[in-house]
Write a structure and sequence with these properties.
Oligomer: single chain
Distance between the termini: 41 Å
Number of strands: 4
Shape: globular
Radius of gyration: 17 Å
Helix content: 40-55%
Bound molecules: glutathione
CATH architecture of the largest domain: Up-down Bundle
Structural class: alpha+beta
CATH topology of the largest domain: Glutathione S-transferase Yfyf (Class Pi), Chain A, domain 2
Mean pLDDT: 94
Low-confidence stretches: none
Order of helices and strands: EHEHEEHHHHHHH
Number of helices: 9
CATH class of the largest domain: Mainly Alpha
Largest sheet: 4 strands, mixed
Amino acid sequence: MKLVIGNKNYSSWSLRGWLAARQSGLPFEEICVPLYGDDWDEAKRRDANLAPSSGKVPILWDGDAVVWDSLAIIDYLADKVGRDRFWPKEDAARAMARSIVAEMHSGFAALRQAMPMNVRRRVQVETVSDAVRADIVRILQIWAEARARFGQGGPFLFGTFSAADIFYAPVVSRFITYGVGVPGFATAYMQALWEHPWMQAWIQASEDEEWTIEQFEESPQA
Ligand SMILES: N[C@@H](CCC(=O)N[C@@H](CS)C(=O)NCC(=O)O)C(=O)O
């Protein structure tokens, strides 16, 4: 398999696709492309197979099969290696995990726009808009419920590492790098996720990257 991803420091959807590929346990080759610059547009023009359809990353190639969306990548890999590797076994837990992953996939636009993922960055956000605050409150509510109802088996949202953690990993990065204050239970969860060996590998690679994208280095918007 081949996984096309963007700059590790900035590309939150790539992080999800990459964690999904790691979670599958299958071997894959990683193709990292610099996003948002002329290089990326040029690369897409040169190689129509690089980013078919949406022109966005992550993209998983498995022989002739191509999957161009992070959630579809999880579904595709779960079909290949078994649902239990990605989703909780128990119905009530899996129902919630599926719902919160879908909620992340289709929502939280205010948070995403105001605090774009930037793994290397450390800033202290002083004020946030009502819309961003509402997103943060909703995420903390989701984490609290998942941890309280289903988190007994380990430090992650549903105990063991799952698709839910894959989808909320970029949020953990944002909360850390923008200095978002969170309650103790959330700090413990964020620490467990941040210290996960795959996250540590991604963080290290982000720090080693030389690309800088100016629009994501500007002061966070309230
Ligand atoms: N819904 C898509 C979103 C993918 C997406 O927006 N990717 C961004 C990078 S994080 C991208 O490729 N941007 C580059 C572009 O739009 O040219 C998914 O879940 O994978």
